[in-house]
Design goal:
This protein is mainly alpha-helical and about 280 residues long. The chain is built from 16 helices and no strands.
């Protein structure tokens, strides 16, 4: 490994250990909103002001509030940011703001190959998010909003690493064989810096190499199932995973999973549209 690349990697990991990872200035508004929504005593007026300072995020909030996930049979669409805030609520707004932070981390990548990888990794994240929402409700019986938030966050380490590799030519190639430990350090740091709840962070860092339990239950299995069924695979190297014959048969034959694989719900399709739009 070239000494400059080695030093850059060491510095990156040292910053991660010290919770000193930095974000591009373009994410500041979304990051402030994400942090404000994480406070138990947040004020709607402050959230409204922060959303209005980020027009693209405001538009996504209104679109999400009008999607079939949140209309629940309502005929009247919302047309204002304040009404969208009331309909979505704190947790779903935080998921949306966190998605905006993560999405903007990699939007400035200049290298064609890294930019293509980042776009595919974000698409994978979005498809896993939509599937996790459906799987939580139909299969694992866990909280769907928590599953949605966890899925949005679960590849943040990879997206951050791709953005950092764009600043240091050769860094990504030199990570061959060392990707998993570097990603773990960076992901753990980002979980802390983004104030991800410990239960969610724990499920995410346990994903590499983990095996789905039968019957599947809980947040980790929800994410693993969503990743296994996603039509868009992660472009990053994946930790080896042993799939038993029993698990393979379950993945290929369970009617609820096959229905979600072949015909995502209207809610899932709407979520994909909003997050990729």
């Amino acid at each position: 490994m070239h000494v400059d690349t080695l030093n850059s990697l060491a510095l990156l990991l040292a910053r991660a250990q010290d919770d000193g990872l930095t974000f591009p200035t373009s994410v500041n508004a979304a990051l402030r909103l994400q942090q404000a929504l994480g406070e138990s005593d947040f004020h709607v007026a402050d959230i409204h002001r922060l959303l209005l300072s980020e027009p693209a995020l405001s538009a996504r909030a209104v679109a999400l509030a009008n999607s079939v996930i949140f209309t629940h049979g309502r005929i009247q669409p919302v047309s204002s940011v304040r009404a969208a805030i009331e309909r979505l609520g704190q947790r779903n707004l935080q998921s949306l703001a966190t998605a905006a932070v993560i999405r903007q981390i990699h939007t400035g990548i200049a290298d064609d190959h890294l930019r293509t990888m980042a776009a595919k990794l974000w698409s994978h994240t979005v498809h896993v998010t939509a599937l996790a929402h459906d799987i939580a409700r139909a299969v694992t019986k866990t909280d769907a909003d928590t599953a949605m938030f966890a899925a949005i966050v679960h590849e943040v380490g990879g997206l951050y690493l791709l953005a950092e590799a764009d600043k240091t030519p050769g860094l990504y190639e030199q990570l061959d064989g060392h990707m998993a430990p570097a990603l773990e350090v960076i992901t753990r740091a980002l979980m802390r810096q983004l104030s991800v709840p410990p239960r969610v962070a724990g499920a995410i860092v346990a994903l590499p190499g983990a095996t789905i339990m039968l019957p599947p239950a809980g947040l980790r299995d929800t994410l693993l199932l969503a990743k296994a069924l996603s039509s868009v695979a992660s472009p990053l190297p994946q930790a080896p995973r042993t799939v038993s014959a029993e698990l393979q048969a379950y993945l290929e034959s369970d009617p609820a999973l096959q229905a979600l694989r072949s015909a995502p719900s209207a809610e899932a399709q709407a979520l994909i549209t909003v997050l990729l739009g």
